[in-house]
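#data-curation
PF: Archiving a pair of folding outputs for the training set. Convention for this channel: one message per protein, sequence first, structure tokens after, nothing in between. First:
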Amino acid sequence: MELAAAHEIATEYVQRLARTSGLPLALTESATLERDFGWVFFYRSTREDELLAGNAPFIVDRRDGSVHVTGTARPVDEYLDAYARQHGTACR
């Protein structure tokens, strides 16, 4: 899978979250990370004066396009390391 396909999956995921929550949400393009297992996407509210709580980054796995939400209680790198270990890939 290439970044363009992963980006499309991520955009659809965030659009679903926006519809469900009623909040205007968008990907934070500049924050996207690439790892051996796929891409890590971040999102935010599009309202300048609105901060979101609990908007965990999510992974789009390059092998099958599946979406995996990380978490917000620990640093992102800890979630990414754990995902890499569970799926037998490096976290580079």
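PF: Second:
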Amino acid sequence: MNLEMLIPITLFASIAYTIKAIVDARVRRQLFRENVSQDLVRSIIEGDEARRRHASLRWGVVLLALAIGFVAIEAFDWRDLTPGVIAILLGATGLGNLVYFAIGRKLTT
């Protein structure tokens, strides 16, 4: 893998995550400073926690589907990068997202 490409991508992702964390912290601090009702603060915190759980569920399902795709590629002993191999990985990713969508709908209803 070309490490010259990985360093700027990692740097950009780190900067974006840091900005998001700072903005979230400032919003929460302003909510506490302005004496917002406890119900609103509680609902915001519960919503954040639910989003985090759903994000973990989504990544887990998608990564599991990708792992199954890689197992299929290994089982058929495909060693070259062909459109068929890429299609299997993209299909596994799409299938993982669809499974997450179905599980997410059941959890919210």
